[in-house]
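Deliverable D5.2: sample structural annotation.
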Amino acid sequence: MTPWVQRILVANVIVYFLEQTAPGLIQPFVFVPREVFTHPWTLVTYMFIHDPRGFTHILFNMLGLYFFGGRVEERLGARRFLTLYFLSGISGAILSFFLAPASSVIGASAAVFGVMLAFARFWPDVQILFMFFLPLQARFAVIVMAAMALWSGTHGSRSGVADFAHLGGFAGGFLYLKWLERREGIRRFRSKTVAPVGKDVLTNWKRVDPTKIHAVNRDEVNRILDKISAKGLSALSAEERLFLSNFVPLDDRIPPPT
């Protein structure tokens, strides 16, 4: 777990337990669109508050942060990751202000959705278990989630889910990543954030055992191994080299010459 993913996760859990012990302390930090000009801090604080009546709200949000946030933080760096996270959350609140002004909003969903969009943008072909049972490539999972939120939001969001906040999180994350690419250039941006991995580190790629790899990463490892078999190590991108290097057994790695 990367440093800021861990800190954000811990902060959310601490606030959740505060909600259980002193619920009255939390109300001033809930985002209420009609009160945003008198309570502007709620644009940020609402991201750390979850439904105290059950555990699933915070559980699913923190699982999303845990599964996707680490790789995104490694890819972007700490400063850019934090900007992405909070900008996505604030964008979710702003869209709710315009499209659902009568509904209070709590939860880290908008911020986590921005992180998920970044994951899908950097690793679009990685398969994830959508709704924990349906394997989908990351890019298609984001498209489906956006379509579901748009349909639900325009039909009244009867389930109580903050659909426009989710859409705002996607929008904020997308615009921030586009701004980064325009400001620094795609090639320069990628070269600064992906550490080079030499061929010597991956020489024993045949020793990688996909059956011992967690299901979340197994499909991507298999895809990269198939690509090596078909086209060779030189066909791998910098991101693919870095990803596969995490699964080469330590004893099989050839140390660089001294």
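Annotation notes: The chain has a mean pLDDT of 85. The first strand starts at residue 127 and ends at 130.
The annotation will be released with the project's public dataset once the embargo ends.
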